[in-house]
Design goal:
Number of helices: 10
Bound molecules: adenosine-5'-diphosphate, magnesium ion
Number of strands: 12
Radius of gyration: 19 Å
Shape: globular
Helix content: 25-40%
Distance between the termini: 44 Å
Amino acid sequence: MIQIKVKDLSFSYSGFRALQDISFEAGAGDMLAIIGQNGSGKSTLLKCISRILKINTGHIEIGNISLSALSASKLSRIVAYIPQSTDSISGINVFDTVLLGRKPYIHSRPAPAFTNAAPEDMELVSRLLTRLELDEVAMRNLNTLSGGQQQRVFIARALAQQPSILLLDEPIANLDINHQMKVMKLLRQLTQEGILVIITIHDINMAARFCNKALMLKQGRIFASGMQSVYTPENIENLYDIQVDILRHNDCICIIPQ
Ligand code: ADP
Ligand code: MG
């Protein structure tokens, strides 16, 4: 069962301290929401966990192994990261895009993943396309798809890595409410299958409804963290520097700025 432990993490962009004293733990089956204002460090934290950025101080341990000790291919078999804007949308089709997620497993063979794939790679991709409702667009170019379809392709590609930890930067930011629900339900299903899902998200209502844990970032520091009980009016007002009314309905909260 995978576990991530972050201890006293700090990160600076050439002198600008973007994250400071970040410590938290999460494990298989958790769905952790990172929330906070624009610029609070959410994306930076995901990039540190995926090792796109190298932390200055502190530790990140994944399954009791230091993140810095993992080889690149081992890391990509454990952690899959879906950035906020994937503007590297090339001209290749959906099937081959998802197949690229198999690269960590077939990297020993030179040349692109889609010329080296084994039958089991192809079968896994087919299963993922069906699961993500992408069968009908499998041969279409990625850049001809809607935003919702593209997001599902990127999730499928990440799942082709068979990761234990899935990181998504604002996965529902550009989706209509129907597709937002579909993505959030899928992510919850993945947690039930034992994957640790960590997302950044602006919609606190969705975070409270789907994520069992929350990390509130304010100016690069953890302002509050924990389970559902962190969504207090005081925390939310303080986090966003606004006055709010909060309505509660079952497991949903609805924030109304004053
Ligand atoms: P969030 O995702 O919460 O909006 P970010 O992690 O993107 O926040 O950014 C945190 C802070 O780091 C912001 O002040 C932002 O301006 C700064 N920052 C982000 N990326 C860079 C970069 N490449 N170079 C310098 N500063 C950056
Ligand atoms: Mg961001």
